[in-house]
Design brief:
Helix content: under 10%
CATH superfamily of the largest domain: Immunoglobulins
Pfam families: Ig_3 (PF13927)
Number of helices: 1
Number of domains: 3
Oligomer: single chain
CATH topology of the largest domain: Immunoglobulin-like
Structural class: mainly beta
Shape: elongated
Largest sheet: 6 strands, mixed
CATH class of the largest domain: Mainly Beta
Radius of gyration: 45 Å
GO biological process, one term: cell migration
GO molecular function, one term: cell-cell adhesion mediator activity
Subcellular location: Cell junction, Tight junction; Cell membrane
Main location: other
Length: about 280
Amino acid sequence: MAITRLVACLLLCTGFAIELTCLIESISTNNPRIEWKKIKNGIPSYVYFQNRIAGDLEHRAQLREPANIVIFNTSRSDTAEYRCEVAAIDDQRDFDEILISLAVRVKPVVPRCSVPEAVTVGTSTELRCLENEGFPAPQYRWFHNSEELPQDPKISPKLVNSSYSINPDTGSLKFRWVRKEDAGEYYCQAKNDAGHAQCPSQTMEVYDVDILGIFLKVCGVVTVLLSFGAFLCHCLKHGCLSKKGLNENNFNWPAQNDAVEYADADEGHFRHKSSFII
């Protein structure tokens, strides 16, 4: 008994059917034992065992004689290695197997894009793009006014003075300093082997330094300070903050006598009065 020996790598887009071939040659055993196993992250699980489909493919697969497995409506979770094992007890070689690697590709969905509505000339800013459904992981491209931005702006004569940088793996578009020419419509595209998708365009406006805004803010602060000062003056004028009675006789101080008195003579002490003269 022998099985066609190969290690196959199949690429397939999601939603399609795929047939994994396990071709048995020159077999003498009438009813060989056939098993299929799915190996994902190094952990095997049964796909076909004891003449029936098992595991997560129970309702999406079938055995096609003599030993092929057909998977319907493939999804990203089907990406794994599949091993066909055949045992033939009446053959001189009573066991054989093959290993097939299956990678199910998933087209990206519409990425989530973040574009600032307005920035000031000379400041830094970042545009973001993210998509996490596609498989393999997509690469990202940015477009400005419907024209693709090259990863290196130096290769374009009209972008040679631009300060942006693009990370195609993370979808980040960063400007170290923004120019007036950077204003316009932006959108991002996520692309892999299964297809591509892009987000709707968004407008980024670029303004000069807002002198008027700064002036108005300063005026606002000055107005607040003047209003506070006027409030203090009003309170002082109407005595709201004065301490009444500090110069009036609101307190009864004990009367003081210029004479120095000592204990009574009856107590056996000398008493000195102001009229005593030596």
